[in-house]
Structures are given as structure tokens and as C-alpha cells.
Design goal:
alpha+beta, 4 helices
């Protein structure tokens, strides 16, 4: 039997309320110790519309270390510009069970400042 961590419980609770559609996809965040990854997901069709990470080649030049607040804000700006290029302007924010502070908050604030609505 798997142990249910507090993050897994929060993640399950968030996912019951947040559903991505083609018009308003779900912006999902994954946080590791060294990197951040963001996906835009259409839950109705079960497809990933866009994926951006601190490991991407175009962001590697700007980011020296992907596990800090500076990298999260750079990633947030990149996410917003790539989403706008794909025609995505409104999203449902899924913090993935992580607490809304630090890198998660920096990424969200930078994406909002660059033009994403959530």
C-alpha cells in the first residue's frame, strides 16, 4: 500500500476542482530540486498542448541553475510568451499540490505579468 504524502493529498484535492478545456487549459507545474517544468493540458481530450521546462535549450542560456526563484520567474515569462504564440491566453492554474510560495509564486507572478490570465 502506498503512503499518502501531504502533497499527494493536496494534489488530489486540487485536481477534483481544476479541469482544463481546449479554450482554458490547465497550467500544471512540476517542481524538482534542480528544475521546474510546466505543461498546458487539455483534460477533455487528454492531450498536452505545450510543455516548457528549465531544461529546454533556449532557456539553458538564460538560466544557470533551475532550482531558484530567478529561474522560476524567467520560466514564467517564457511560458506566457510561448502560450500566447499558440493562442492560449486564459488558463486554470494547477500548482500540483505544492504550497503557493517561493518558486511556484514567482512563476505564477511572472506569467501573469507577461500576459497570461488566471
Amino acid at each position: 500500500m502506498k503512503r499518502r504524502t501531504p502533497r499527494a493529498i493536496r494534489q488530489r484535492r486540487i485536481r477534483t476542482r481544476v479541469i482544463g478545456t481546449p479554450e482554458k487549459p490547465r497550467l500544471n507545474i512540476f517542481r524538482s530540486l534542480k528544475h521546474l517544468s510546466v505543461q498546458f493540458i487539455d483534460d477533455i481530450e487528454g492531450k498536452v498542448l505545450l510543455r516548457v521546462s528549465t531544461l529546454d535549450k533556449d532557456l539553458k542560456d538564460k538560466i544557470k541553475y533551475g532550482g531558484n526563484i530567478k529561474a522560476a520567474s524567467i520560466l514564467g515569462e517564457a511560458v506566457a510568451t510561448k502560450a500566447k504564440a499558440k493562442g492560449i491566453s486564459k488558463v486554470c492554474f494547477d500548482r500540483g499540490g505544492y504550497l503557493y510560495h517561493g518558486r511556484i509564486r514567482a512563476l505564477a507572478d511572472a506569467a501573469r505579468k507577461a500576459g497570461l490570465e488566471f
